[in-house]
Prior knowledge:
single chain; about 30% helix
Amino acid sequence: MKSPERTRAGRLHRVLEQYGEITVAWMWRQREQTLTTSVETTRESTHATPRTVRILGKRLGSPVLLVGTVFSTEEAVLLAENGDILTYGDAGFQRVGHGFEHAVRALVAGDWDKTFF
Length: 117
């Protein structure tokens, strides 16, 4: 039996316990960008349906959890099974980093692989 930390629910609980209901804002090209884990904002996002999250997991080949939104385009912030944080929007997926805190720092600094897949 998997420990609670190893289950999807356990990972989601850990991320939201540490980073839930935060909003980080920064300037990029003279425009404010935000990342939020606000439950209300995330639930209202385009990608917030369970069906969509399942489809995104199938496309990646591993389950993902929706933990927030980012940018003015409200792209999905996804927690992958291996702990990676990805964004997803109309152009596809981007891997931002491993671990939530590292991914937020990479987003704000603009220091992540911006290749879409």
